[in-house]
Specification:
The chain is mainly alpha-helical and 60 residues long. The protein has 1 helix and no strands.
């Protein structure tokens, strides 16, 4: 009886549900990376604009 408990189903081809789950997780990871890059870009842009405003005050 104890021999049957060691038989796992990892060697079978992936079914539609597990493929869908894997793709969904990959999509979520990709979206997180894109959002992080966009946030960094927006913060950088905001800082540059603030510096430009301050610089223009001194130049005028």
């Amino acid at each position: 009886m104890s021999e049957e408990h060691h038989h796992h189903h990892h060697h079978h081809k992936k079914d539609g549900a597990s493929l869908f789950k894997q793709r969904s997780l990959q999509a979520i990871e990709t979206r997180k990376k894109i959002e992080k890059c966009l946030k960094i870009g927006l913060v950088t842009l905001a800082i540059l604009m603030a510096l430009a405003v301050v610089a223009s005050q001194f130049l005028l």
